[in-house]
Design a protein that fits this description.
Blueprint: H1 13-24, H2 36-41, H3 48-59, H4 65-73, H5 80-84, H6 91-105, H7 110-122, H8 126-139, H9 143-146, H10 152-160, E1 175-177, E2 185-189, H11 194-198, H12 200-213, E3 215-219, H13 228-232, H14 236-257, E4 262-265, H15 268-274, H16 277-280, H17 288-297, E5 298-300, H18 301-306, E6 315-317, E7 320-323, H19 327-332, H20 337-345, E8 349-352, H21 366-369, H22 371-387, E9 392-395, H23 398-404, E10 411-413, H24 414-421, E11 437-439
Parallel strand pairs: 2-3, 2-4, 4-5, 7-8, 7-9, 9-10
Antiparallel strand pairs: 1-3, 6-11
């Protein structure tokens, strides 16, 4: 793509990076076929190619930020376009930069800005988020009255809020949980923010599974939100503030407790951002090297597990698992086969979901801020899931879990199934399937008809 920037403009390292990205785009249009919003809307401006051109026009001063903003707002940041692009266009960093400039240079409507500010001030903070969910639970009996409100956001949040009572996890304070198996090393776990409140048992399952692999697991003082929510809203300074806390916490762990084998992330949306800390702080002399260290150690739980030697699972079953590959995992981190193979090795039958490359519509806060489009993508994904007739759905991202739980098929995290297969408790959502796991046959015994051993 041809660009027109002055030498003076290109002295700005961020703009120079943006120009390099823009020049890689050759207008081939392959990205259009895999873009969820283009599939729904059919508008070139709501495709990656269209957004790239709009961003170029804005950077060159030919388009006002307020003209570009609605189309970037409708982008899910699923990065399916990056998987498809034959030219290697770095759409992720281009869109992050564009959003940052838009937020700095143009004012949103007061109601839009207040919604975004409310989400930024609640979701990344577990205590505030828990209180907000408790308030929503108290308001649930009045849902019929509240649904008449003109606030789309209120109605959407009431629909998305969990119906069951909130629980507390087993491991909720900074500590190191030691393995009782032959020790292979020590890892840190990002305990996160939203996930810690919505599904605390997921961190518990991750810790048990890592202990089973032979690793001590450290929960660090001071770590929390990865910064993704702020970053995708164009608030880079806020995102960096969250990231710095995590970087400092993990460096303190290394200095105080010795080397870490990995920093484990079990929410793929967070993992994509943590792995990108090196880029986020590339121009920061105080944090560039520290961020590079953290990014080099960050691994999704399925990525880390796939690199380990696993013992045989405790049983085998005929449970059919539809694997939903979260966009942030398959497109953002390029982790595709590992979770599927881990599930097969654990004794489950893995089913492929049609249109597996298309986003489910969760995408962080997208299902709140762009609820109509998110609802269409949700329904499309649920229909695809139902078509393969699974017993359950497994995925690697809390947003996807929450989004897909609106369907009739129970949804769990991949690590929930792995933990169960290697000695942990049956996930609460799958108690009705518990009887379909049988002990592995001993020498000389045969497998019952209808069951397969991976």
């Amino acid at each position: 793509m041809e660009t027109h920037f002055t030498l003076e403009q290109l002295r700005d390292s961020r703009l120079k990076e943006a120009e390099d990205i823009l020049r890689r785009c050759v207008h081939c249009g392959f990205c259009i076929a895999t873009c969820p919003t283009y599939l729904l809307l059919g508008d070139e401006r709501d495709s990656p190619r269209g957004r790239i051109y709009l961003t170029k026009s804005m950077l060159e001063g030919k388009a006002a930020p307020k003209q570009v903003r609605p189309h970037l707002d409708r982008c899910l940041s699923c990065y399916s376009c990056m998987t498809t692009c034959p030219s290697g266009v770095d759409y992720m960093h281009l869109s992050d930069y564009a959003r940052q400039l838009i937020e700095k240079s143009s004012m949103r409507a007061p109601n839009d800005e207040s919604r975004r500010k409310l989400l930024r001030n609640i979701l990344p903070y577990p205590k505030r988020f828990r209180l907000a969910l408790l308030a929503l639970a108290a308001a649930r009996p009045f849902r019929a009255v509240l649904s008449r409100s003109r606030s789309k956001m209120l109605n959407t949040i009431l629909e998305l809020a969990p119906k069951s009572p909130l629980r507390l996890g087993t491991y909720t304070t900074p500590q190191t949980i030691k393995t009782d198996r032959p020790r292979r090393g020590r890892v840190a776990l990002l305990s996160g923010c939203v996930q810690r409140v919505l599904r605390p048992e997921l961190n518990d399952a991750t810790i048990r599974f890592l202990n089973h692999l032979g690793y001590d697991v450290t929960l660090s003082e001071g770590e929390g939100c990865c910064g993704a929510l702020s970053l995708h809203m164009g608030k880079e300074a806020s995102a960096k503030a969250f990231a710095k806390r995590n970087i400092d916490a993990w460096h303190e762990q290394r200095d105080r407790g010795g080397p870490l084998n990995a920093i484990i992330v079990n929410t793929s949306g967070c993992g994509t951002v943590v792995k990108d800390y090196a880029h986020l702080f590339a121009g920061d002399p105080a944090y560039a090297e520290k961020a590079k260290y953290v990014s080099s150690l960050a691994k999704d739980i399925s990525e880390f597990a796939a690199q380990q030697r696993l013992y045989a699972p405790i049983g085998w079953s005929d449970i059919r698992v539809a694997y939903h590959s979260a966009c942030s995992l398959q497109h953002g981190q390029k982790i595709v086969d590992e979770p599927r193979q881990l599930l097969r090795n654990a004794g489950f039958t893995v089913l492929e979901i049609p249109e597996g490359h298309i986003c489910c519509g969760s995408a962080g806060t997208y299902n709140i801020l762009q609820s109509e489009l998110a609802k269409q993508l949700q329904e499309r994904k649920l229909q695809a899931i139902n078509s393969v007739k699974p017993d359950c759905v497994a995925t690697g991202n809390i947003g996807c879990i929450n989004q897909l739980s609106a369907g009739s098929v129970p949804v769990v995290h991949t690590v929930d199934l792995l933990d169960w297969a290697y000695g942990g408790p049956c996930p609460e959502a799958l108690k009705h399937l518990e009887g379909r796991v049988r002990p592995l046959p001993r020498e000389g015994e045969t497998v019952e008809e209808g069951y397969e051993v991976a």
